[in-house]
Specification:
Layout lengths: L14 E3 L3 H14 L3 H9 L7 H5 L3 H4 L9 H13 L4 E5 L3 H16 L4 E4 L12 H10 L2 E5 L6 H5 L5 E5 L13 E3 L15 H18 L11 H10 L7 H14 L4 H9 L8 H18 L4 H7 L3 H36 L6 E6 L6 H12 L3 E7 L2 E7 L6 H10 L5 E4 L3 E7 L3 H14 L9 E3 L2 E2 L7 H8 L13 E14 L3 E7 L5 E6 L7 H6 L5 E13 L2 E13 L1
Parallel strand pairs: 1-12, 2-3, 2-4, 4-5, 5-6, 7-8, 13-14, 16-18
Antiparallel strand pairs: 8-9, 9-11, 10-11, 14-15, 14-17, 15-16, 17-18
Protein name: Single-stranded-DNA-specific exonuclease RecJ
InterPro entries: DDH_dom, DHH_sf, DHHA1_dom, RecJ, RecJ_OB, SSDNA_exonuclease_RecJ
Keywords: Coiled coil, Exonuclease, Hydrolase, Nuclease
Length: about 575
């Protein structure tokens, strides 16, 4: 296939790839049939939306897309046991993972129980000392003081730990890939159990918890009782869905769309305080959840105190929320410094090992286990290959992996663990964790690479930049950008459309901060537009565009609305460029 606009090697070394011919035809036919703008039709065609379904897709209604909670196995048992604990005033503990999904899932239950007058013990394990998921000492301790333990965003593979919870009953609410046998629990509600259909495999743990609360509220209505307000909880569900990189398809789109509207009301004191310290001064979008709020909530679990994020999301006290938000913001700054060092070392090691195979990996002594997942994401983005980064301490490595579309990393890591090359490992398609003995590291990574190779990992060009079509600056209006946003929210499995603006003149260019670039460009016929490129001076993009010397360029990026001092203007989030 010919390179788009003839760009075989852009300033960042990538080949530009345009939309397939059949997508072009479907987009043109949709534009004629619906009178929707061409760029929006290109976006819908790429998502596989037929023209007749476009109106419904652009206005996803939660009531139409929310599945019946009882379609998940063990859901009724879980809801009945939860309500029984409430009515009997039993002692309830919530054991959650230390990431955003685990924190939001935990907060959902704590808030729902609190509104019914039932306090719950919140337990988030320490990432360094306890690791991921339930462990035997913690479960023994919780079981001794509670009647019911709810494990959220974890527990599906924790056979020994759940068996240790003698004297208490355990309910698991999770979404990680299940094994051949289930752990000893009263109920395991998980759309990724092996005996599930897979229809709801894209849900994050917070969405599973939300469905449990939907079912519990339904049962309360049947008994003539009014349950807590669930719509107000959707800000937490949307945050978890985006931050956990769950695919923004099906009901997830509706959950995030509705949750963003709830979040914009700023009623949750924890999220309000966090938005303020993060400098979020506009209506939140999916981007803000993934890149502003999510990393700060994660910072506690990564390098600080694991329960800070869950406590922030669950609190109803404004003063506590402010203190927690400021602490998390500082931890996030510290995390960035640690992450930068590990990224540099891991990138150099991975490059020396080779970036053209099915797996990119790196391991280092003393690398902080709280940042290896982020560094794995950086390597994956740079190479378009599944990536694993491992921190080694006391001859044992703890690592995280991130995958690319179409390659199930969690299943492959689970397979390597079952073969004895890993101490433990698991996760889901796009992200997974593992623990490995240092002396088995090379063998484990070699076996993982074999399994990923069978799925086609590494066959995609690491330098391809996919584009949805051409656009001229005069057409990039606020109205068009808002119309394109209705095809969102954009994120995992639903990337925002990327357009090429051909043969542009750089009218003004300046460095912003240490590494960012701000430019104004025009088409030579009067229309002009601003663009921002983050990290441009870490690549050849910044220096070349800054010293453009009057040359003209093809520009590629995503459209966004820039809000500044009450003014709104179209802006290009510049990702790449090529000399015209």
């Amino acid at each position: 296939m010919a390179a788009f606009l003839g760009v075989e090697q852009s300033l960042t070394g990538r080949t530009w790839v345009g939309p397939p011919a059949d997508q072009e035809r479907r987009a043109e036919a949709m534009a004629q049939a619906t009178r929707l703008p061409g760029p929006l039709c290109h976006t819908l065609a790429r998502r596989g939306v037929p023209a007749e379904e476009a109106p419904a897709f652009l206005a996803p209604a939660l009531r139409d897309l929310l599945p019946d909670p009882r379609s998940l196995k063990d859901m009724e048992q879980a809801a009945n046991r939860l309500l029984q604990a409430v009515s009997r005033k039993e002692r309830i503990a919530v054991f959650g993972d230390y990431d955003v999904d685990g924190g939001a899932s935990s907060a959902l239950l704590v808030i729902w129980l609190r509104s019914l007058g039932r306090p719950a013990t919140l337990y988030i394990p320490d990432r360094i000392d306890e690791g991921y998921g339930p462990n035997v000492p913690a479960m023994r301790k919780l079981a001794a003081a509670h009647d019911l333990i709810l494990c959220v965003d974890c527990g599906t593979l924790s056979h020994d730990a759940l068996a240790a919870a003698e004297g208490a009953e355990v309910v698991v609410l999770d979404h990680h890939l299940g094994g051949e046998t289930l752990p000893p629990a009263l109920a395991v509600v998980n759309p990724n159990r092996q005996d599930e259909s897979g229809d709801l495999a894209h849900l994050c743990a917070a969405a599973v918890v939300f469905l449990l609360l939907v079912e519990a509220n339904r049962k309360m209505r049947e008994d003539g009782q009014k349950g807590p307000d669930l719509m107000s909880l959707l800000d937490l569900v949307s945050l978890a869905t985006v931050a956990d990189v769950a695919p923004l398809i099906g009901v997830n789109r509706a959950l995030v769309r509705t949750g963003l509207k709830v979040m914009a009301q700023r009623n949750r004191v924890g999220l309000r305080a966090l938005a303020d310290v993060a400098g979020l001064n506009e209506a939140p979008r999916a981007y803000h959840l993934g890149y502003l709020l999510g990393p700060r909530i994660n910072a506690g679990g990564r390098i600080g105190q694991s329960d800070l994020g869950a406590r922030l999301l669950a609190t109803g006290d404004a003063a506590e929320a402010q203190a927690l938000a400021e602490r998390l913001d500082q931890l996030n700054r510290d995390r960035r410094e640690i992450e930068q060092r590990v990224t540099e070392e891991a990138s150099a090691q991975a490059e020396a090992r080779g970036l053209d195979g099915p797996l990119v990996w790196a391991a280092g002594e003393g690398w902080h286990p709280g940042v290896v997942g982020i560094v794995a994401s950086r390597l994956k983005e740079a190479t378009n290959r599944p990536s694993v980064v491992i921190g080694i301490s006391d001859r044992e490595g703890k690592g995280s992996g991130r995958s690319v579309a179409g390659v199930d990393l969690g299943a492959s890591i689970q397979r390597v663990a079952s073969e004895g090359l890993l101490i433990k490992g698991g996760g889901h398609k796009m992200a997974a964790g593992l623990t490995v003995a240092e002396d088995k590291l090379d063998a484990a990574m070699e076996r993982l690479a074999e399994l990923l190779d069978r799925q086609g990992a590494g066959q995609g060009g690491p330098r391809d930049l996919e584009l949805d079509g051409l656009l001229m600056p005069g057409a990039a209006t606020i109205e068009l950008i808002e119309q394109i946003e209705t095809a969102g929210p954009f994120g995992a499995s639903a990337p925002a459309p990327r357009f090429a603006l051909p043969d542009m003149a750089i009218l003004h260019a300046r460095r912003v901060g240490e590494a960012h670039l701000k430019i104004t460009f025009g088409d030579g016929m009067g229309a002009k537009m601003d663009a921002i490129s983050f990290g441009a001076f870490d690549t050849p993009l910044g220096p070349r565009l800054e010293a453009h010397g009057g040359a003209r360029f093809h520009l590629a990026g995503r459209l966004q609305i820039n809000e500044w001092n009450g003014r709104r203007s179209p802006q290009l989030r510049l990702e790449d460029a090529a000399e015209a």
